[in-house]
Design a protein that fits this description.
Blueprint: H1 3-13, H2 17-32, H3 42-49, H4 54-64, H5 94-108, H6 112-120
Helix pairs in contact: 1-2, 1-3, 2-3
Length: 122
Amino acid sequence: MNPAVISALISTSSGDLRRAITYLQSAARLSSATEPPTPILPEDIQEIAGVVPDNVVRKFAQTLGVDVPVNGRGDEDVEMGGTTPSNTTAVLRGFDLIRSTVRSLVREGYSASQILTQVCFP
């Protein structure tokens, strides 16, 4: 198994072995449900555990000006906030950038309390 998956299991389960086993069993079922079976990724574990993916938390923390160390692969392909609608080229800054980013996170369905927990207690 990929070491990043093991790291995701440890962090999402908070060291609870029973919870980690449950997450891994669920991920294995989902993985084997496709033809051919897909590898289990850290993002799969995070989704099953109900935590916000590391790359989303990292991007939000950067918007706030906070450096958050996270486990996992560190994909940087998340687009949140940062610019106004596509008909203008102005770049948002300060409060407007944060508000735009929060709105984007809410539209994506992420839990605000979960994001704050992950930013404050990485």
